[in-house]
Description:
By secondary structure, this protein is α/β, with parallel strands linked by helices. The protein has one domain: Rossmann fold (3-Layer(aba) Sandwich). The chain contains three helices and nine strands. The protein has a six-stranded mixed beta sheet, sandwiched between helices. It has a three-stranded antiparallel beta sheet with strand order 1-9-8, covered by helices on one side. Helix 1 packs across helix 2. The longest helix has 20 residues. The protein is globular.
Amino acid sequence: MDQGIEKKFISEQEVQSIVARLGKEITEYYSEKEDLNLLVIGLLRGSFVFMADLIRVIHLPLMVDFMTVSSYGEGTESSGNVKVVMDLDEPVEGKDILMVEDIIDTGNTFNKVIGLIKYRRPRSLNICTFLSKPSRRVVDIPIDFCGMEIPDEFVCGYGLDFAQKYRNLPYVGILQQSD
Length: 179
Ligand code: IMP
Ligand code: MG
């Protein structure tokens, strides 16, 4: 096992089959849209590994862009006070937007980001997340494509970090308790 990891939670093979399934669902969904103008937007940094794999299994013409937001506030829980650290390069107006996130936890961060994107008048807006912790949700997020629902457990790997580390693991793991 990699250093600091207690156990695997989602193996590399499972990760890849989740991504393949999502790619199929997303391709089928958008294939039915006329005059598709698809822009896939990833939230940095967590989504970059997932997004890199995901776009390669979406078999449609698309553009990609990234956005960095930071959620500031007290404690470990995201507050919903979201600051845009790096904005998109591409205009959103009139486009079919697919937002991609690594994990939706309380939903506070994503809720604010959805608001920002909607304000720019996309033609459509859909949400894809690799992981979701429904038991932690504070605000409702209408997820269209979900990789896997997980219990309230802190996970890392496949883009997800703990103190900026572990993003490079090809699987999702649970950290060793440090006490
Ligand atoms: P939310 O605003 O509470 O939904 O926070 C979502 C963000 O918190 C995600 O984009 C992650 O950056 C981070 N996060 C939440 N749960 C985990 C986890 O289990 N591992 C790593 N990061 C997490
Ligand atoms: Mg994140």
